[in-house]
C-alpha cells in the first residue's frame, strides 16, 4: 500500500453535493496563477467556481446576504463565479447563476457550464462584468466593480491527496465539516486573461499555478492556506523546478466537535515527499502555527514535525496586495469578515531531516508567489 500524497484522483474533484449536502453544502474549484502584461509586468489572478445548496434552487440565484433572505433565514442557492486579482489594484468579482441555468456533469471528470463560463479538469473560461453602480447597489453580491474574462488550459502536475481524511467512507458519513483535495497543487496554465481592458498572457513556465477544491457543510476557523511552487534553493541558488509545498486547515470539525488547531502540510522537494498530515497517525505529526499582523503586513509561522523530518515555514504578505475574500456559508451566515487572501506572499521554508538523534538541514528555500490565507470567525462558533 502506498502512502504517497502525490496521488492524482479526479473522483475527489467530482461535485460532492450529495445527500444532505444538497440542502446545506458547498463545493468549490479554486485556481490561482501569475500572468504577465504586454510590458512583462507580473500580476497574480484567481478564478473559482463555487456551488451551493442545489436542492434549494429557485428561478433566480438565492443570495443569503440579501436582507429579506437574511431576515427569513432563507439559505443561499447558486453557482457563483469568483474571479479577480491581487496587487495594489486588487479586486474580487462575483457572478451568480440560478441552478436552472447551470449545466453540470457532477461525476468525474467534472464539468460546469453556465453561459460563457466553463470549468473542467483541463480548461477554465468565462467572464464577469460589474459596474461601480451595480456593486454599490448590491452589497449582497459581496464584490467589487470591474471586468475580467479568461480562457485557460490547465495541466495539473503534482497532487496533494490528503488520503483517508477525504476518502469515500468519511465523505459518505459527512464526518468533517470541510474537506480538501489539491489535484494540482503544482499546475501549469496557458492562455490569456483580460482585466479592465488590459491583456495578460499566461505561460506554463511562469504561471506558478495552483488548483484545489474544498467542500462541506461549513468553513473552518481559523482558516489557513499557504502554497508555492516558485522556489529557489539557497544551497544551490537554482530554482527548484519539480517542487511545491502546500499547507492548509485550521480547526477541523468532526461531527461538529472541533479538534485542536491542526494543519495538513506537505513538501514535494524535487521528487522526494515530506508529509506532515496529522491524519497519518504513524507519522506522529506535531504542528505549531501562529499568525500576526501589523499596519502593513501579515505574517505566518508554521513548524511541522514528523518522525522523519521538520518543516519550518515563515511567510509574509503585504496588506496592500491582499484582499478580504468574501464567502457566505451554506446556512446563509457570513462569519468570516476578515479572511485575508493573497497571491504574492514571500518567505523562507527550512527543511530538515532527523538524523543520529538530531536535525540535519536538507535545504533552505526562498518562496515567492505564495498563495496565502488567514481568517478567524468574528464570533467563535
How would you explain this protein's 3D organization?
- With about 375 residues, the chain is mainly beta.
- It has one domain (about 10-375).
- It contains 3 helices and 25 strands.
- It has helices at about 65-70, 130-135, 170; strands at about 25-35, 40-50, 80-85, 90-95, 105, 110-115, 115-120, 125-130, 145-160, 180-195, 200, 210-215, 225-230, 230-235, 245-250, 255, 255-260, 260-270, 270-275, 285-295, 295-305, 310-320, 325, 340-355, 360-375.
- Strands 1, 2, 3, 4, 5, 6, 7, 8, 9, 10, 11 and 12 form a 12-stranded antiparallel β-sheet that branches. Strands 13, 14, 15, 18, 19, 20, 21, 22, 23, 24 and 25 form an 11-stranded antiparallel β-sheet that branches. It has a two-stranded antiparallel ribbon with strand order 16-17.
- A hairpin with a 2-residue loop joins β7 (about 115-120) and β8 (about 125-130).
- It is globular, with a radius of gyration of 20 Å.
- Mean pLDDT is about 95; it is low at about 250-260.
Overview in brief:
With 381 residues, the protein is mostly beta strands. It is built from three helices and 25 strands. Strands 1, 2, 3, 4, 5, 6, 7, 8, 9, 10, 11 and 12 form a twelve-stranded antiparallel β-sheet that branches. Strands 13, 14, 15, 18, 19, 20, 21, 22, 23, 24 and 25 form an eleven-stranded antiparallel β-sheet that branches. A two-stranded antiparallel ribbon has the order 16-17.
Amino acid at each position: 500500500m502506498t502512502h504517497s500524497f502525490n496521488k492524482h484522483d479526479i473522483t475527489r474533484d467530482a461535485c460532492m453535493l450529495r445527500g444532505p449536502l444538497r440542502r446545506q453544502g458547498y463545493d468549490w474549484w479554486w485556481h490561482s496563477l501569475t500572468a504577465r502584461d504586454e510590458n512583462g509586468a507580473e500580476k497574480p489572478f484567481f478564478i473559482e467556481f463555487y456551488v451551493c445548496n442545489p436542492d434549494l434552487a429557485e428561478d433566480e440565484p438565492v443570495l443569503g446576504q440579501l436582507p429579506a433572505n437574511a431576515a427569513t433565514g432563507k439559505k443561499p442557492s447558486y453557482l457563483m463565479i469568483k474571479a479577480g486579482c491581487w496587487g495594489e489594484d486588487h479586486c474580487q468579482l462575483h457572478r451568480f447563476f440560478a441552478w436552472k441555468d447551470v449545466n453540470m456533469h457532477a461525476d468525474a471528470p467534472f464539468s460546469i457550464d453556465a453561459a460563457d463560463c466553463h470549468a473542467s479538469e483541463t480548461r477554465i473560461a468565462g467572464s464577469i462584468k460589474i459596474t461601480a453602480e451595480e456593486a454599490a447597489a448590491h452589497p449582497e453580491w459581496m464584490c467589487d466593480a470591474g471586468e475580467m474574462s479568461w480562457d485557460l488550459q490547465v495541466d495539473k502536475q503534482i497532487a496533494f491527496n490528503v488520503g483517508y481524511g477525504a476518502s469515500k467512507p468519511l465523505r459518505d458519513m459527512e464526518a468533517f465539516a470541510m474537506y480538501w483535495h489539491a489535484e494540482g497543487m503544482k499546475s501549469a496554465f496557458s492562455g490569456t486573461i483580460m482585466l479592465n481592458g488590459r491583456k495578460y498572457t499566461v505561460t506554463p513556465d511562469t504561471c506558478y499555478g495552483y488548483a484545489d477544491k474544498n467542500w462541506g457543510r461549513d468553513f473552518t476557523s481559523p482558516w489557513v492556506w499557504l502554497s508555492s511552487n516558485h522556489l529557489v534553493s539557497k544551497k544551490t541558488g537554482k530554482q527548484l523546478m519539480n517542487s511545491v509545498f502546500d499547507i492548509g486547515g485550521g480547526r477541523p470539525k468532526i461531527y461538529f466537535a472541533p479538534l485542536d488547531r491542526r494543519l495538513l502540510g506537505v513538501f514535494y522537494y524535487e521528487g522526494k515527499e515530506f508529509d506532515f498530515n496529522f491524519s497519518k497517525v504513524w507519522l506522529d505529526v506535531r504542528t505549531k502555527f501562529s499568525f500576526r499582523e501589523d499596519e502593513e503586513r501579515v505574517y505566518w509561522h508554521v513548524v511541522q514535525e514528523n518522525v522523519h523530518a521538520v518543516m519550518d515555514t515563515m511567510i509574509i504578505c503585504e496588506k496592500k496586495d491582499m484582499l478580504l475574500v468574501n464567502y457566505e456559508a451554506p446556512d446563509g451566515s457570513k462569519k468570516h469578515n476578515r479572511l485575508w487572501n493573497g497571491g504574492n506572499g514571500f518567505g523562507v521554508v527550512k527543511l530538515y531531516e532527523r538524523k543520529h538523534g538530531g536535525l540535519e538541514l536538507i535545504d533552505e528555500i526562498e518562496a515567492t508567489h505564495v498563495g496565502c490565507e488567514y481568517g478567524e470567525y468574528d464570533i467563535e462558533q
